[in-house]
Structures are given as structure tokens and as C-alpha cells.
Specification:
Distance between the termini: 51 Å
Shape: globular
CATH superfamily of the largest domain: Spore Coat Polysaccharide Biosynthesis Protein SpsA, Chain A
Structural class: alpha/beta
Strand content: 15-25%
Number of helices: 8
Radius of gyration: 18 Å
Helix content: 25-40%
Order of helices and strands: EHEHEHEEHEEEEHHEEHH
CATH architecture of the largest domain: Alpha-Beta Complex
CATH topology of the largest domain: Spore Coat Polysaccharide Biosynthesis Protein SpsA, Chain A
Number of strands: 11
């Protein structure tokens, strides 16, 4: 079983060395490290050159004004050149603990019916580390709480299936972790969430999520996209999307805000 660690990066020079080192320190040694970078303008290239013999580096121009779509584009291109049986996604500002690949390997070998694995990460905020907790949703018919990108490991065949089914197209504000969480948990039911703490997810000021304030115009528009994504995904799989009230309410607010400034 070979692992492909797919790292996406843009101006993550402050964190990318820790990210790379965490991959190189893995107990499991059958892996490749592929970094796809959106032509960073900070000190990232100096760090990449330092590890040139240990990583495969690819440069790719941004394809969109939307961060989520640039991230998805990089990961798909990385997947296309990867060779691993198991794909581990990793943001350039996050990192793995040394036992990450070993634990993922053990679980996939014992559970052949599971196609995608989510591990509950540690949340790093400055110098503090806190465990990620899954909150109980008041609305049972809405999307699941999103477990971050760097805590997602999946079989190669399942990643290809997601691409073939155009899971990553359109809906420009929706990150890849949201799409994979929804598809695997609400539609395919081929997932497992493990409580091992083998990934560290950083909360930083310039992340995709940190730029959206709750109840802002962007928040409502993104929420509306999430509903549209869910509704269309359910319909495509001959299922009924039951969250009609929230969808209708969000749609009305989004249309109103689109015609007015905040």
C-alpha cells in the first residue's frame, strides 16, 4: 500500500517547512510527497529548494478568484500525477503526527468497505492545541459538520469516482472538504470518523474560512451554494433533499443581499 500526500500551498512560507518535515518523519515510509503551489510570492521557494530531493514540486497559476476553486484545481492536478493507493490531503499550513500514515494504513487494511477516512484533528491556535469536536446538529437534514481537508484520507478509486461524478465542479465558494464530507456521509455512507488525533489543523487569519464572517453577505451566499449543492447531489442520486425551509429562507436572503450592499 503506497501513500500519496498531496500538499497545496500559496504563500504558506511561515508554515510549509513544518508541514514538509511532518511528512518526512512518518513511521510509514512507502509514500510520495507532491506539492502543488500557486506561485507563492513569499519565502516558500527557498524552503521548497531545501527539500528538493524529498518532494515533487509543481507550479500552477491560479485559475479563479475563488480560493476554494484554486485549492480544488491544485488537488485534482496533484491526484492526476500521483501514484498512491491511498490519497492523503494536506494544506500547506497544517501538519501530521509521525503515526498518521501508519494509523490510516491499519484502518484501511482492516476495513475494506471504507473508502474515506476522517480523523478528528487537533486545532492549533497560536501555542494552544485543542481537540476537534463534532457538534450535534439541530437540523438533522442539513449537511454534516465539516472535518478539515488535512484530516481526509481516501482510496484512490473513490477520489477518481468523485472526479468522474463532477463532485468538484461549480459552486465556487465550496471547499473540497465540504464536498467530500457531504458526499461520503450523506450519500455514499462509505466513511469512518476516527478519534485518534493524528493531524494538526491551524486556525490562521488568512485561511479560506477565516475570511467569512458569520451572517455576512458572503456567509449567506456561501450557505445558499451549500444548499444548491446538496439539493442537486440528492436529486442526482434519486434522493429527496428534505431541508426545504432552511433552503427557501437562505435563498430569499441571498437574493435580497445580492441586490444590496452590506
Amino acid at each position: 500500500m503506497k501513500f500519496s500526500i498531496l500538499i497545496t500551498s500559496y504563500n504558506k512560507g511561515q508554515y510549509i517547512e513544518k508541514c514538509i518535515q511532518s511528512c518526512l518523519k512518518q513511521d510509514e515510509k512507502n509514500y510520495e510527497i507532491l506539492i502543488f503551489d500557486n506561485h507563492s510570492e513569499d519565502n516558500s521557494d527557498l524552503i521548497f529548494s531545501k527539500y528538493a530531493n524529498s518532494i515533487e514540486l509543481f507550479k500552477r497559476k491560479k485559475i479563479s478568484n475563488y480560493s476554494a476553486m484554486n485549492q480544488i484545481d491544485l488537488l485534482i492536478k496533484a491526484f492526476e500525477v500521483s501514484k498512491g493507493d491511498i490519497i492523503c490531503l494536506l494544506d500547506g499550513d497544517d501538519y501530521f503526527f509521525p503515526n498518521k500514515l501508519n494509523e490510516v494504513k491499519k484502518y484501511f487494511l482492516k476495513n475494506q468497505s471504507v473508502d474515506i477516512l476522517f480523523d478528528k484533528p487537533f486545532i492549533k491556535n497560536f501555542d494552544s492545541l485543542n481537540r476537534f469536536h463534532i457538534k450535534k446538529k439541530i437540523q438533522k437534514n442539513i449537511w454534516p459538520q465539516t472535518i478539515p481537508t488535512s484530516s481526509i484520507s481516501l482510496r484512490r478509486e473513490f477520489m477518481q469516482k468523485c472526479i468522474n461524478e463532477k463532485l468538484f465542479e461549480n459552486y465556487y465558494n465550496l471547499e473540497i472538504d465540504f464536498r467530500l464530507n457531504v458526499f461520503s456521509q450523506n450519500i455514499n455512507n462509505n466513511y469512518k470518523i476516527i478519534d485518534l488525533g493524528i493531524t494538526v489543523y491551524r486556525q490562521i487569519d488568512n485561511s479560506i474560512m477565516s475570511n467569512i464572517k458569520k451572517f455576512s453577505k458572503k456567509w449567506w451566499l456561501k450557505r445558499n451554494e451549500a444548499h444548491e449543492f446538496m439539493r442537486n447531489l440528492y436529486s442526482k442520486n434519486q434522493l429527496i433533499y428534505k431541508n426545504k425551509f432552511d433552503f427557501y429562507f437562505t435563498s430569499k436572503i441571498s437574493k435580497f443581499l445580492s441586490r444590496h450592499d452590506n
